[in-house]
Amino acid sequence: MKPTIYLVFVDDWELRGNGSGDVRELQFKPMRELTSLYQEFGVRGSFNAEVMQQIVFRQNQEKHPELRELADEWEHHVRETYRQGHDVQLHVHPQWSDAELVDGKWRLTSDWSILNYSLADARKLLFAGKSYLETLLRAVDPEYRCVSFRSGSWCIAPSPHILSLLVELDIVFDMSIVAGVRYDTRNIKLDYTQCEEDFLPFYPVMTDARRVSTKVEPLICVPTNCFYASRGYIFQRQMNKVRQRLFSETQSINASPSAPAYGAEWEQVGGSKLGRIYERAIKPYVSGQHYISDLAQLNYPLLSEMLTSIRERARKSGLSEVPVILENHTKDVKDFSDIKRFLSDVSRSSDIKCLTLTELASKLSSGAFSIRTASH
Ligand SMILES: [Zn+2]
After folding, report:
1. Which of 135, 213, 248, 337 is the most buried (most CB within 10 A)?
2. What is the pLDDT of residues 335-348, one digit of tens each?
3. Residue 150 Cα to ligand 1 middle (Å)
4. How far is residue 35's CA from residue 80's CA, in Å, rounded to a whole number?
């Protein structure tokens, strides 16, 4: 029997990790564009609103009145989006704590990973974020509550206290595990290459969400989806790159001046040069190219491969209903046409339904979806 797939369209809605970027260009405009596409195809999406940034804007609005205007617009967009039936949930980038505005630019000097904060400091940050969002959205719906969490830069494991802190916050599930990623950058060090569950909801070992617990726990993890592109696709992509390189010899390419600085934040620093070449050029042919299911980073052929992989894995799970969390970063979307084609495919597929994060939380709580433990 063909399983029913419940797709959750999630978007991490925020400025760039180093605090750069124009809020109107990177957040407000693409949010309006995306919600109007959702409207067109009858999809209700979910936005993980990065709240620390907004709190810092509010803290600095007396000194910088332009920040008050932007913070008001931020609230307006969040409330309107929620009013339209989309969901808004909690996302926190701790590097915004103690941020300073110097000559019109944000200086973010705090640690990027919530895992490096003491329990008391992490508790303060997360409670502040949750309470800001709940106060804002209860004006629209008194029943609103934060039920899910996505940690900034995926930082959730291992940690002696972060999952218990989420329980304290009344969070139903976390979606920060994305199997297969490994970051060794100047800001983030994490290794999710050995996750025990990369597709289905599961109960985590409370000190290490990369592992599946042998028993029911007070918190659920739902991995953010990832997949491996086919060899055919990788070969095609290499050929296109060669073609582009030949073409660019006769063309001058004007890279955006802000692009290199942004990219540098995510440059891998660890390991040998040879190791990095292997990761980039050889490994994709051996074990397939790993992709996070991040719509902003995928073209239409990859989005289709992603869907094929999801269907295949849902079928192999033997379950009749499987929830899958997709990712997006509207700040990185230059052109919505591939996402539009994908939404159109989804809306015409009889085996796919769409859920918001809040709906997913209530289905998980009511037992509508199976949640894995290590014993079966
Ligand atoms: Zn983020």
Report:
1. 213
2. 999 999 999 999 99
3. 8
4. 10
- For ligand 1, the distance from its centroid to the CA atom of residue 91, given in whole angstroms, is 7
Neighbours of ion ligand 1 (CB under 5 A): 12, 14, 152
- Beta-carbon neighbour count of residue 76 at 10 Å? 11
Class for the domain spanning 4-229+293-366: alpha beta
Predicted confidence (pLDDT) per residue in 82-132, tens digit: 999 999 999 999 999 999 999 999 999 999 999 999 999 999 999 999 999
The two three-digit tokens of residue 70, written as one number: 């932007």
What angle do helix axes 119-138 and 51-59 make, rounded to 10 degrees? Answer: 80
Cα 297 from chain centre: 12
pTM for the full predicted model: 0.90
CB 132 within 8 A of CB 169: no
Burial class (CB in 10 A: 0-12, 13-18, 19+), 208: middle
